[in-house]
Design a protein that fits this description.
binds magnesium ion, 251 residues, 6-stranded mixed sheet, 9 helices, Rossmann fold, binds adenosine-5'-diphosphate, globular, alpha/beta, 4-stranded antiparallel sheet
């Protein structure tokens, strides 16, 4: 299910526009993400990538256009919005764990509070997920006792604990020391292989080549190019993308 034809997309953005004051940050965005697809979003800083992610789970409102998630137009507020949020996981650059909760509690909290899962069941599941991301041994520690790479893996386990229909990753490895990047990417590659629908803002081209079905190049609020990773990285179509790639490839 890597193609858009024939399958109902999980997410569809139609003519989406967003301004911050006079700044036009999303310019008539049209984009679909299919179920099971891994979409990598790449592009210069300030291009609107984070705003795009935040609009998809409605951490940002849009001015006009439409965002449809799993067949429903994004709800404005209330219970329907809370449900949507719980179905779309988000992993940020800064891990955003609760500092005063243990690792296991961080992963347990959402299912208990939002889903009404029993503490025991949530705790058991949390351990399975921590096992999956390779940090079960740290379950009773606090976030500050873990490395950045470990904390980001906890953040991924926490997102998974809600059984999301998709996960948005906004530069998940940008704040990490270089030696920790791969351990987080490996977890993400595993999720991609297991069929998780993922939108990943990243400049990690190794990840894009191994895991992405499609790359979207975004600059100045617009989708400038959309292609397979192989085509995009070896045969970018626009000067804008070629220029960007030459910068990230030679830094
Ligand atoms: N809350 C906000 N208020 C005003 N301007 C914002 C806000 N968030 C982002 N911007 C601006 O919108 C543009 C797009 O930002 P962003 O989506 O964060 O880009 P990217 O993630 O590609 O770096 C930037 O010029 C940024 O300064
Ligand atoms: Mg950003």
């Amino acid at each position: 299910m890597t193609e858009n034809g024939g399958v109902t997309p999980l997410v569809r953005l139609e003519n989406v526009n967003k301004h911050f004051g006079a700044l036009h940050v999303l310019k008539n965005i049209n984009l679909t993400v299919s179920r099971g697809e891994v979409l990598v979003v790449i592009g210069p800083s300030g291009g609107g990538k984070s705003t795009l992610c935040r609009a998809i789970n409605r951490l940002e409102t849009i001015d006009d256009g439409k965002i449809v998630f799993d067949g429903q137009v994004l709800p404005e507020e209330g219970k329907a919005l809370a449900r949507l949020r719980s179905e779309v996981g988000m992993v940020f650059q800064s891990f955003n764990l609760f500092a005063h909760k243990t690792i296991r509690e961080n992963v347990t909290l959402g299912p208990v509070k939002v889903r009404g899962v029993s503490k025991d069941a949530a705790s058991k599941r949390a351990m399975e997920l921590l096992e999956r991301v390779g940090i079960a041994a740290q379950a009773d520690k606090y976030p500050a006792q873990l490395s950045g790479g470990q904390q980001q893996r906890v953040a991924i386990a926490r997102a998974l604990a809600m059984d999301p229909k998709m996960i948005l990753f906004d530069e998940p490895t940008s704040a990490l020391d270089p030696e920790m990047v791969q351990e987080v990417l490996d977890v993400m590659i595993g999720l991609a292989r297991d069929g998780m629908t993922m939108v990943v803002v990243t400049h990690e081209m190794g990840f894009a080549r191994r895991a992405a079905n499609r790359v979207v190049f975004m600059a100045d609020g617009q989708i400038v190019e959309e292609n397979t990773p192989d085509e995009f990285f070896t045969n970018a179509q626009t000067d804008r993308a070629r220029d960007f790639l030459s910068k990230i490839l030679t830094h």
